[in-house]
């Protein structure tokens, strides 16, 4: 089903991009079988090489994913006035939004729902979505993907040789953990019609995720791109082949600090096309606001110093809200010796 915005806005504020060619497809995305015996080592290897990987055999029923997607498509198919009524008010930034990403001038060809999560379900303080069927479907999905995130972090701790298997997962499942869930819809962009297949519009501009990890799933429409670096450290954007049955995991800024730079948060973006809608779900696994973020002692070699000054997640989150998407948020927390 293709959903189109009821009142298309002027798109001259949204950057157009050249789409990577066929040879720029990231065909070697690391794949982690979460049910397999080699998951721990595979996760660490993928995080060290790319900060990004795909998870299969994750155990989330296809019906859970399909129903949530169907309900999301139905929500975005509503009249614009109905969607606007779900926009943020006292609960800012949570609720419905369109085109504008944050408060600092970033724009994208998308509409979205940004939702707060308490424990394993949507927060009661966030009344959107109000429809019982949609809310129920998202709660079932959130509970399932939160479990996937915890299992990934437990396997990661094992692969890193951390004695406490819950050292990372407890940060995102413990009391007060700061979890966020986002539903993005990228409609076909009419401004691209007649420009050829090499043109795309910015759906969500390049950025890294500030949390520990994020877990993404989308429908069968491509659009996700990640920035890889070659031997000369030159940045190259590559397209990630879509897989609606899998989850994609990003290393976030906080995990980069917790591993003292051993893992690097991956820069990524989403582009749109003129033909097909993309619907994606992203679960952002963050710790409690008071959680101290600093390299884990178990991961520091003898004599190795932290590359970052210690901060709380609340401090970092506040700083992140003041930046543009593409800014290096960690720069102000790096030690001068880097």
TrEMBL record:
Residues 176-287 form the Fe2OG dioxygenase domain. It comes from the Eukaryota. It is an enzyme of class 1 (oxidoreductase). The keyword Signal does not apply. InterPro entries: DIOX_N, IPNS-like_FE2OG_OXY, IPNS-like_sf, Iron_ascorbate_oxido_reductase, Oxoglu/Fe-dep_dioxygenase_dom. PROSITE patterns: FE2OG_OXY. Pfam families: 2OG-FeII_Oxy, DIOX_N. This is gibberellin 2beta-dioxygenase. It comes from Zea mays (Maize).
